[in-house]
């Protein structure tokens, strides 16, 4: 079995005249990222590999979560920033077979689109919520029964659950 933990970055600030790539997390986003890190730890959702977009807000999300996850291998991959579904799938297809659980931290609309393409069954409520909105710090936990990341395809995943800061009692989703 393979497990994909698809985490959208936490809430970011929008300072005037700042490039999108350089936007930092808002205070609320910092708190949400820590909550998601604790959730991952408490639920034993520990990745073997973490793939992170190199934008400032995704890097800061990862740095807030990292202390709760032990010491997984982490990689920055520029392709995740503003990625299409095809690009995100290519990144996942390249993951080594030794990695059973992968945490990917990135952006919308790519993550929402990727989740909808990969998920074929599972948590109906979670799938419906993903279709309505994939908020900042939203986490889709998607399981695959086959043995290789290179084989990931449409509707082959099972949504185990979809967790957001709001579902954890951490305020409103963005």
From TrEMBL:
| SUPFAM superfamilies hit by this protein | Phosphoglycerate mutase-like
What is this protein identified as? Histidine phosphatase family protein
Any coiled-coil regions, as ranges: none
Q: Which domain of life is it from?
A: Bacteria
Q: What organism does this protein naturally occur in? A: Microvirga alba
């Amino acid at each position: 079995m393979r497990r994909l933990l698809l985490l959208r970055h936490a809430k970011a600030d929008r300072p005037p005249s700042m490039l999108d790539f350089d936007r930092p997390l808002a205070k609320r986003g910092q708190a949400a990222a820590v909550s998601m890190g604790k959730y991952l730890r408490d639920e034993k959702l520990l990745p073997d590999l973490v793939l992170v977009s190199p934008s400032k807000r995704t890097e800061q999300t990862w740095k807030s979560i990292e202390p709760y996850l032990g010491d997984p291998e982490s990689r920055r991959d520029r392709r995740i920033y503003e990625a299409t579904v095809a690009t995100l799938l290519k990144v996942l297809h390249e993951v080594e077979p030794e990695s059973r659980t992968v945490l990917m931290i990135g952006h919308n609309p790519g993550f929402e689109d990727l989740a909808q393409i990969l998920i074929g069954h599972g948590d109906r409520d979670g799938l419906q919520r993903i279709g309505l909105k994939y908020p900042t710090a939203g986490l889709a936990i998607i399981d695959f029964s086959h043995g290789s990341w290179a084989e990931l395809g449409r509707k082959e995943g099972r949504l185990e659950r979809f967790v957001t800061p709001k579902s954890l009692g951490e305020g409103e989703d963005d």
